[in-house]
Fold each of these.
Amino acid sequence: MRWALVKVCVAVTTMVVVAFAVPLGLVIKEMARDRAFSNAERQAAAIAPALSITTDRDQLERVVASAGSDDGMAVHIPASDGAKAVDIGRQRAAAKDIATTRNIGRASTTEVPGGSILLQPTALSSGEIAVVEVYVPESEVSNGVGTAWAVLAAVGVALIIGSVAVADRLGVRMVQPAQRLVEGAHELGEGKLGARVPEEGPNELRLAAVAFNSMADQVVQLLANERELAADLSHRLRTPLTVLRLNTASLGDGPAAEQTRAAVAQLEREVDTIIRTAREAKPQTAATVIGAGCDASEVVRERMDFWSALAEDEGRKVRVAGVDRPVRIPVARADLVAALDALLGNVFRHTPEGTAFAVDVHNSEDAVIVLVSDAGPGIVDPEAAMARGKGSGSDGSTGLGLDIVRRLAESTGGDVRIGSSVLGGTEVRIWIQLDGRAPVRRGHRGSVRRRRRGVGASRV
């Protein structure tokens, strides 16, 4: 917008300067010509009194010398009463032009090499017509014209430069508020909820700034309300969790009792984490730092130890692979635990007892793939299951399980895919990028497996 305004002002100012400077330059040139010929007429008029008194050559030469340069003035007296014609000075005009001027009885001009000639008729005492010739060189005709045109050009350039400066200032006054509005929108989109823009500039941009600030205030208020609602809802879970923790104390000793108490303690920690996060004044917008995370192999081993007891009770075969060596990923431990628990919980919730399942960890130079597969009936509509925040609405589904897994993968630049597993059921692939780049669209063992069509509930 700024440069467009400058270009428009340059074009308009240039047209105005040309429209006025060209005619004015022509007028100046004509005025210089008129001035030169007026001087020539004055010189010719200075000879007229002497010609009306005498035609003596010597006297006329003295008069011509006193009136002007001998080289620039000439007098042509015709022959009369037996007297010869007298020509004083250098003749530049053609004889026919002199005769024509004498016949018509009025002044005339004619062009000659290097300038122009003024032919002025003057009556003699004898009644004959003498012609006074005055040479006007071209330099005298154009005297001062070049300087005047240079001044006009300088004034025109100054006007154009001035218009550019004014247009640029006006453009800055219009563009800066728009740029600040764009920067504020980017900051707000990045999660900087304190971003505001000055309410200044042209009226339209000022109104846009007012609307933006009002929108930002409403966004902050809405997020604050949502945080308070999440904190309140999470806080309501503390009472039943307390009762559940007290009840676990009466379970006695044994692996099942210990696992139950550990699960309740972990649930309490998760609820506390949700409450603290919801109460924070600022959203978590910092990018994941590569190198800070957890050991995926350790987390998988721990969670499989937890779920293996339930799997043993239900007669499920369990296989774990790829966890024999450390695998660092840029994901918080709690996030990976939540994602694995969501997927393994789906296996137990949506497959019959006795259904086998497996967890595999594949490590490469730029990514880590975690595969959770089972031998169940599969998923009827994987696309619906992967839709954000969508669930089947049955069997206690909230539609948040796969959202948790997706957020974990996408926080690293990875993704989540659902396909058919080698066990005959569903395979959920979590692609975790190690360098933050966009994920390569490929699946386990070289390609994305086509999902197996079967009957089963949507897993969330």
Amino acid sequence: MPGQGRRKRRQEAESRRAAALTTPDAGRWQVVIETRDRAELQAHTRSLQEARVDASLIRIDVLCRRPTEQSTYRLSRFVAAGEE
């Protein structure tokens, strides 16, 4: 398909850049919030985006459990070593 190679190269370049920014010696992941409420997670994510935090420096982990109502969302932000 036309343009597929270009999109793939762009996505690979973005993932390499994010990996280089978030190396363990460059800083650490700081948990912003851990909640079961998806709306609360989205509100905190929006507030980080409004604060102009780079999207590649935000991580959302879903800690799945059974039943699914007990699943937990963890929103983390990468904090550079000098910002701590």
Amino acid sequence: MSEADDCLFCKIIAGQIPSSKVYEDDTTYAFNDINPKAKVHVLIVPKRHYANVAELAAADPAELAHIVEIAQRIADERFHGAFRLVFNTGLYAGQTVFHVHAHVLTGEVLDE
């Protein structure tokens, strides 16, 4: 079994696990975080499985740029264009699902 076969986010993308979809296109899926850390907390994931943002950047920099564009679109729609974009990379940085995902935090003024 590959990592992708047992990946929570791959199962969400495939529709095997329900999610609250915010955005979807041919390469990317975004959904509301089930444990939000801000008024708006959306996860953006590439449909293709990459373990972390460094792996994504090396393999498909255009998809990484696309994720940033989607983050901006979400922030434009939900909070005047302001947002925080976070990628946790590695267990000791707080990554708990090893399918790269961007946390878009917005919807309110955020503390530093």
Amino acid sequence: MKVWKISGSIVLILFIVISIFLCVRKIDGEGVVQTPEMRNITLIIWGVFGLIILIGYLIWLAILKHSKK
């Protein structure tokens, strides 16, 4: 359970740092200027990815709790 909390904290911190980076950058890797609409699209895609990771962590938590019983 301790490993789950530590790895979850690390992933959360990385997710927040990358989200901040996506919000403050002026030009993306392709050289496209980031307008507010492009930032929103990028953050939505990043949020969907984060949701998939969150679901994986919740499944992992359920397995850990079930195996302790």
